[in-house]
Amino acid sequence: MKLSHTIKICAVTLITMNLVVSFCTIWLFIRILPAIDLIVQNNISSIEAAENMLTTLSVIENEGTTKRDLQAFKIALNDAKNNITNEDEKIALGIINRSYRKAFENDISSRKELRFAIDYLFQINRDEISRLKKEASQISMAGAWGLVFMSLFMFFITLWFLRKLDKKLLVPTNEIYDVIKCYKNNEKFRRCKGTNLNRDIKFIFNGVNDLLDERIKYDKQ
Which residues, including other chains, have CB under 8 Å from residue 110's CB and lie 6 or more apart? Predict the structure, then answer.
């Protein structure tokens, strides 16, 4: 029956749309946000490495250079190199790598250059974290609005489906119910009727009306 097929298609469409909304939500939180979190973690690691380098530099400026300080600085520098997230960091780390040995040999200009490069590395990662925070907020907002629009679309599709269901199935079913109830109450001339009916409902209405007419003829005999 065509009406049954139409209702099944509408129901499958609603279920599919719900699944699409659900999977989009899952994908948003599983794929995008953890990736941003990983990048932020790399920037935090770079800031910690810069802090360690700056601490070591402050120690040698106040107390003089030791092999342990140089080793600690190298470890922090390697940590920063392992967490590069953009080209500006490469520039800062290149300056640091070029000047730290002379700085540890008490070269004043190299120490100034080294401190400037470390401060630059700090600023790069702070700016990157701020940018990523803003980007995460924008993604979250875009995802939220996307889900809102999809939910609104689902809402209107559901309303359309319910309206169609009411018009094409529930109203005709109530009409058949009223006709049968009237027949049971000896109101035997009540018949199924309606306007703008689809072919299947017309067929059912005509069938019910024919059965009632035959029943009345049978009762008169």
Answer: 99, 100, 102, 103
Measured CA to CA, the distance from residue 205 to residue 197 in angstroms comes to 10
Helix (H, G, I), strand (E, B) or coil at 193: coil
22: tokens are 């659900």
Percentage above 70 pLDDT, the chain: 84
Question: CA distances (Å), 74 to each of 82, 96, 112, 166, in order?
Answer: 12, 10, 18, 76
pTM check: above 0.70: no
38-62 per-position pLDDT tens digit: 666 777 888 888 888 888 877 766 6
The 8 Å CB, 24+ separation contacts for 141-149 are: 143/25, 143/28, 143/32, 146/24, 147/21, 147/24, 147/25
